[in-house]
Amino acid sequence: MAVTNLTNADEFYAYVKSQDLSVVHFYAAWAAQCVQINDVLDEMVKSSDLNGVNFAKIAAEDVPEVSLKFGVSAVPTILLLKNSEVTDRVDGANPAELLTRVKQQMSLKNPISAAEIQKSKEDIEVRLKKLINQAPCMLFMKGNPSNPRCGFSRTIVSILNSHKADYQTFDILQDNEVREGLKKFSDWPTYPQLYLNGELLGGLDIVRELGETGDLEAMLPKVGSEESREGASEPEHQAEA
Q1: Fewer Cβ atoms within 10 Å of its own Cβ: the N or the C terminal residue of the chain?
Q2: Phi, psi (5° rounding) for residue 166?
Q3: pLDDT digits (tens, 9 = 90+) for 68-93
């Protein structure tokens, strides 16, 4: 095998589409350090320890749009890519560091694609929507009503119980995906969080204020009410009354 010489942007983009690790040296013919790195790549491509890695070089000044896109502002710069995505880089002539980075990338699984990240985001949003609509009144708290794990959760449970509210809870300490996801989903950074009919009412301060003004009483479904019976859905294993 030999180091592939890429001559234009189209060749570069086609080359780095590979699911295998691609190591591309952005060089300049006039730079002595680049000559050194090209010699290093010539040796690396022969190494049986690096089977499956693709090695290439491209003159940075011949592809200014590619250099600009990938932040190549000096030579030598070596990009490590998979599936057209940069996974690592080495700036400057540092053969030992380059070998270390290449071996590190070889030991990693294929990077998560943008499509996979988007699918994961959609999956958690579907689950969160299901959870907040699990009951007409849904409380996300630390712990559960019989064993609150923080003072704020204990206080909001006390308020709901004093109004004889019919509610279900979810212990966010048992599921970090829900805990972090719900903060972003509802743009509310703290817990507890109280939802009515799938809409965020707020945290402890808002619930306490509504209780003091008397508005909370009419908003909450009551134990045994028709609204509670009609709104209830099949609970997840985490939820409990």
Answers
A1: N
A2: -95, 110
A3: 999 999 999 999 999 999 999 999 99
Q: Region 214-218: what's the mean pLDDT?
A: 95
The pTM assigned to this predicted structure is 0.49
- Of 20, 41, 47, 24, the residue nearest 106 (C-alpha): 20
In the sheet that 193-196 helps form, which strands lie side by side, from edge to edge? 168-171, 137-141, 193-196, 199-202
Do the beta carbons of residue 6 and residue 57 sit within 8 Å?
A: yes
C-alpha separations of 150 from 16, 82, 144, 178 in Å: 51, 45, 10, 18
Percent pLDDT > 70 in the chain is 88
Cβ atoms 135, 167 nearer than 8 A: yes
- Which two tokens mark 50? 């690096």
9 closest CA partner among 71, 66, 67: 66
